[in-house]
Design brief:
Order of helices and strands: HHHEHEHEEEEEEHEEEE
Number of strands: 12
Oligomer: single chain
Number of helices: 6
Largest sheet: 6 strands, parallel
Helix content: 25-40%
CATH class of the largest domain: Alpha Beta
Strand content: 15-25%
Distance between the termini: 51 Å
Strand order of the largest sheet: 1-12-7-4-2-3
CATH topology of the largest domain: Rossmann fold
Amino acid sequence: MSRDIILAGIRRHLRRGPLPPDQAAMLSARLAEHPRHIIPKRVQLSRPELVSLFVRNLEKEFGSVARLAELAAVPQAVAEYLAAQNLPNELVIAPHSDLRQIPWASHPLLKLREGRAEPSDFVSLSSAFAGIAETGTLMFPSAPERPTTLNLLVEAAIVLLRTSRLVGPYEDAWDLLRAEGTRYNSSGFMPRNVMLITGPSRSADIEQTLELGAHGPRRLHVLLLEDDPTAKG
């Protein structure tokens, strides 16, 4: 069922017709302009400072970070993390072009499976669309190369993030997504789902006791690929 049919049905049941021309024009203009909120001063920083802020905020939310100089360093970083966390050397990875370029043959003991995560999977590796320094958050638009199950079903989620995809405030992340909308469909619409992840899953609903992994991964580890020369301190 198309979007127009759904909205027409809602209007019919609410006994509403089309918007008056002046209201329709005002709404269209507002959607096209994407008015920005006040940007916090704490994210009006240089590129190296934004990277440092992202790392601090992520670690504050119980995530961990390994900074890598090149894509070829990923297999070693993954192997070291799995060993340190006493996790199996098997992982399900996203069918993303960045991950397919990694020279996995350098670590043949790592067992990889590409695709969606299953409940039996312990570790996943995905590629973030963007990182948001304001809160140490990762952005994942739903797409074939970013199965959402990789960030929900596993015990430990490993995420590759390029510093060139790191922004300060949330507004910049949404601007980046709008600018690249045609990657998700030919009409340039937003993706069906956008997942924002800040640290591993946690909850303090029961007796105010913090429990990690309550509704998703217990661990979140970011491989920060330093591919932006302007972001190096």
